[in-house]
Amino acid sequence: MIERTASPAPGFTRNPGKKIVVEPFKGSVTVKVADVVIAATTKAKLLKEDGYPPVLYIPFEDIGFTNLERTDTKTHCPYKGDASYWRLSAPGEPGQDLMWAYEAPYDEMAEIKDHGAFYEGQVTIEKSS
Asked: Which residue segment(s) compose the domain that 34 sits in?
């Protein structure tokens, strides 16, 4: 479990019993859209949050940002911070958001800084150990 800091996120201040655990994923992860590899890593992190399915976070260095473009979508989590979103950069109709990241997360979630997570319904995520 992540140690609490002297400056906790607002969510943890209101709900100190909330559990969010970030741990290394043991194995490799490849993210594809059709046959295009968007990300591939052996350094993914697995975030487990009470009430939600586990989410894989992939280091920015292992994500092909040449295939992605930032969108105007923004959301806020009282535990993690403000999220930014990306979609596939392809000619024609703009696609749906398929990746999000907390670029400046709260202290408790510093482990997911400079990591992106993908919507499983928008991409294919292949995992192997």
From this structure: 10-128
